[in-house]
TrEMBL record:
The keyword Acyltransferase applies. Its EC number is 2.3.1.39. Transmembrane segments: none annotated. InterPro entries: Ac_transferase_dom_sf, Acyl_transferase_dom, Acyl_Trfase/lysoPLipase, Mal-CoA-ACP_Trans/PKS_FabD, Malonyl_CoA-ACP_transAc, Malonyl_CoA-ACP_transAc_FabD, Malonyl_transacylase_ACP-bd. This is Malonyl CoA-acyl carrier protein transacylase. Residues 6-294 form the Malonyl-CoA:ACP transacylase (MAT) domain. Pfam families: Acyl_transf_1. The gene is fabD. It catalyses: holo-[ACP] + malonyl-CoA = malonyl-[ACP] + CoA. It is an enzyme of class 2 (transferase). Keywords: Acyltransferase, Transferase. It comes from Sphingobacterium micropteri. One of its GO terms (molecular function) is [acyl-carrier-protein] S-malonyltransferase activity. Belongs to the fabD family.
Length: 296
């Protein structure tokens, strides 16, 4: 069966995540301890027994989800046989490490740098995101384009669910117009800022240099990347798409559609939570989905 492995992004975290992986064997424990050294703080303490608020800080959340996903993928051993991989936003970095394009160490360093750069961009310009439910993508895009403040379509999660991102004024105005246009709900999200919008430009500039200096190899299978939902194996193109990702949209609906068109029959979510399995089912109810699990 042609299987795609998919990796979640921010929002999937929970206190206690990764504890079972840490205790699994010496190899997984070593990776977690290596991560503590690289990051310069004991992220494992926050993951296993911190508070929700501790875990919700972008600089903690992103490396935490990355570690859970990547170490789980490594623990799958020979059963990890992807025909394709993809990740939602941050999950793209996890997918690249799991598919052998990025080393564990380089991936973690980039994710930590990305999280800090995004946090800084959020603090520099108060901004937000909102989930728009029950409208088609085109209507949402059209209405966002009419608003004078910065507001753009940021996450194409599944048909009828699109997240918009921008300045607080821009998102507020768009929410009113979208509700008037027939959206079932326009729900402001509890996030630090306007991810995947032009307001992330300072973070993109900061991250670009780090990505350019990092070695990326050809992955063991194609990775369908967020910015245009197309499969890539060429390291130079993968880099360019990673750089564009911070200010570009996450085209998840289109990513799933692309994978289905390429003959994928099953999706395995690798990491905390089951958000992506739900989104895949909204694109195609008949496709098989599951969470990655380690056979004892």
């Amino acid at each position: 069966m042609k299987t795609a492995y998919i990796f979640p992004g921010q929002g999937a975290q929970f206190v206690g995540m990764g504890q079972d992986l840490y205790n699994l064997n010496e190899e997984t424990k070593t990776l977690f301890e290596q991560a503590n050294d690289i990051l310069g703080f004991r992220i494992t303490d926050i993951m296993f027994s911190g508070t929700d608020d501790d875990l919700k800080q972008t600089k903690v959340t992103q490396p935490a989800i990355f570690l859970h996903s990547v170490i789980l993928a490594k623990a799958l051993g020979d059963s990890f046989q992807p025909a394709m991989v993809a990740g939602h936003s941050l999950g793209e970095f996890s997918a690249l490490v799991a598919a052998g394009a990025l080393s564990f160490e380089d991936g973690l360093k980039l994710v930590a740098k990305r999280a800090n750069a995004m946090q800084k961009a959020c603090e520099a310009q108060p901004s937000t995101m909102a989930a728009i439910l029950g409208l088609d993508d085109e209507t949402v895009e059209k209405i966002c384009a009419q608003v004078e403040d910065v507001v753009v379509a940021a996450n194409y999660n599944c048909p009828g669910q699109l997240v918009i991102s921008g300045t607080i004024e821009g998102v507020d105005k768009a929410c009113v117009l979208l509700t008037e246009a027939g959206a079932k709900r326009a729900l402001k999200l509890n996030v630090g800022g306007a991810f995947h919008s032009p307001l992330m430009e300072p973070a993109k500039v900061e991250l670009q240099e780090a990505i350019e200096e990092t070695e990326i190899k050809s992955p063991i299978c194609p990775i369908v990347q967020n910015v245009d939902a197309k499969p890539y194996t060429d390291p130079a193109q993968i880099k360019a798409n990673l750089i564009a990702q911070l200010t570009g949209a996450v085209r998840w609906t289109q990513t799933v559609q692309q994978m289905l068109a390429d003959g994928i029959e099953a999706f395995v979510e690798v990491g905390p939570g089951n958000v992506l399995q739900g989104l895949v089912k909204k694109v195609d109810r008949s496709v098989q989905t599951s969470a990655a699990a380690i056979s004892e």
